[in-house]
Amino acid sequence: MSAATSTRIPEGIGTRVRRFTSRRASWIPVFAALGILLALLLAGQAYFGNFLTPRVLSSLLLDNAYLLILAVGMTFVILTAGIDLSVGAVLAFTAIMGARMLSEGVPVVVVIPVMLIGGALIGLLIGVLIQFFDVQPFIASLAGMFAARGLAFLVSLSSIKVEDPAILWLQTKLFNIDGWYLSPTGVIALLVVAAGALVLQFTRFGRTIYAIGGNEQSARLMGLPVVRTKLLAYIICGTCAGLAGVVFTAYQGAGYPLNGIGTELDTIAAVVIGGTLLTGGSGFVLGSMIGVFVYGTIKTAISFLGAEQSWTRITIGALLLVFVVVQRVIVSRSSRR
Fold first, then answer.
1. Where is the major localization of this protein (predicted)?
2. Which of 2, 72, 97, 146 is 20 to 30 A away from residue 177, measured at CA?
3. Beta-carbon-side half-sphere exposure of residue 115 (alpha carbons within 13 Å)
4. Whole-model pTM above 0.90?
5. Helices marked H in the chain — which ranges?
């Protein structure tokens, strides 16, 4: 039979799956996180019977909007093979600073930009320590964390209640769409996710972020603006922390210098569970969003059970361990190829 008349044998499903996984290995952890999220939701529905309801599912976004914003900023930093331990403290500092300014009669149109600039300046400080003083990201961001927490205590040692209607409106206003609820804080979080995803996937800055995380030395040899890009990554992370401070202030209705303790670890865990490699160069903002929803689902299920919230930490820790192992397997397989 000639080649012109021969029938092409179709590829098997296994071959297609192997081809996809070899070319799109970075998506495997994201799909794994999505599978875990769906499994948690289905298990919750099977056990409780009223878990998959619009009100419960809407609360995943309403209650974790601030964490979602932090996760977007953290994704930028981790993609460069860095880390930022200051985001929880920056959230507390900007929140208590904003609450103090509002209590003294400063207009909200001034307060919110000041909170964002405050977060961006701390991010810039961390980036400068890393790039120009050759300080390890862990140590530099630890210094930023202590500085931000100290500034929070300097502003006030006690809680400051927020009574400004414009800030409270961000959380109290609920848009009801066929039983689904969405607040302005949720809208802000989704817009941040969309902006982060678009920047990383469709801009030169985003491609440079991935290049630096993949191999910083090669990125320098290619003439990419490594210093400027890494500085901007930490500034973006700090700005997101400042914006999360705005959202968290609306959510709590007050500022408190001890807010956000441990939030940086929750943020890193959500980003890693969402598929971003701690070694940098691979990951997606949408994956980080899935990681936040996994965290929120576990917290909600434990609340339904009436168990202590310490089980949330235990469960997230176990998942984090599994995903770190998965990441190591992917990295080693990619190295062999």
1. membrane
2. 72
3. 33
4. yes
5. 13-23, 28-48, 54-62, 65-79, 87-103, 108-132, 137-155, 165-172, 184-202, 204-214, 216-221, 226-252, 263-273, 285-305, 310-336
